[in-house]
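ok here's protein-histidine N-methyltransferase:
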Amino acid sequence: MRCVGNTAGAHLPVNKKCHCLSRVTPDSISVITDVLVSEENLGAGAEDLEWFEAAEVLLTEQVKAVSGKLMQKVNTGVYGPLQLAYISTGDGIAGLAELPDQQPIAEAEELHSDLLPARYEGGLKIWECTHDLASFLACHPTFSMRGKKVLDVGCGAGLLGLLALSQGASDVHFQDYNVSVLTSVTMQNVLLNTTENTATRCRYFAGDWQSYVQLTDDEFKSEEAKFDYILSSETIYNPSNHTKLYSVFRKRLKRTGIVFLAAKTYYFGVGGSIRQFEKLVEEDGVFESSVCWKCSEGKKEITLIVKSVFKSRDGYSSRFILGAGV
Ligand SMILES: C[S@@+](CC[C@H](N)C(=O)[O-])C[C@H]1O[C@@H](n2cnc3c(N)ncnc32)[C@H](O)[C@@H]1O
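and the structure:
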């Protein structure tokens, strides 16, 4: 079931965007604790929806054939010492006609929507927290991914998984809801940034998180098979999906592993919030979490990066540490 890459290699960037962490503010965490979640905003009503089943998606010759077209226009993100090339959303959509499972994306495009619950979940666009988490990781060598197994959950363009790959991760699994996001954007970005050899360290999984956990259950029975790092950005916007996402963390992380979750404090119009997710984690009592970075730009929104690790076996600490540095 392994995918095969090609030798796409490096391409000259058209745009170069620098994402640095200089805008970190040491504000008190209390700024963000009072956000209320209104019932009517719980919006998506995920329980009533039919979610796509999970499947492994292979990087086929058909997917590679599209890459030639997309690579005409490439952006480059700069994260600390690392640079990653990525195609823009528009270019991704342009490639879709030739690839399978394009219908949900076409519907979203027609409606000019970033989100069609359980049809298209927003992976074509690169969301801000991805850049924040990529910068955070690139600037903290303590969390180097060299030789590590990494899962990028709700990966969209896959920049976090790509960062792990470029740091020398041994295995990177990219998971996204829509097959077409994986084939038209994620895989294309992997092809852009890697050699054939490196690309063979990647696997791709589409479908709903609940079904993804079921699909991969046999493979992840042993501790050794699990991930050293699970990375996720902007995936908590829909509160109805929190338990599914949390179960990916719970069931796929090694005892010694770390989850990095980057998210906005509150998702207006959809209802998810970091507070709700933290509560879920806290109530389960298995992880110890801390906010290890935050940013408030123009006081519009706050991005948090939450780091979760399994509690030590003797239950050493049950505190939820906020605002702590790493
Ligand atoms: C807002 S996008 C963020 C994409 C990317 N992580 C970023 O920051 O640019 C949310 C991502 O989570 C995935 N997602 C949302 N709900 C999901 C679900 N129930 N099962 C699987 N993936 C889901 C979507 O496919 C999408 O890629």
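+1. The two ends are 38 Å apart (CA to CA).
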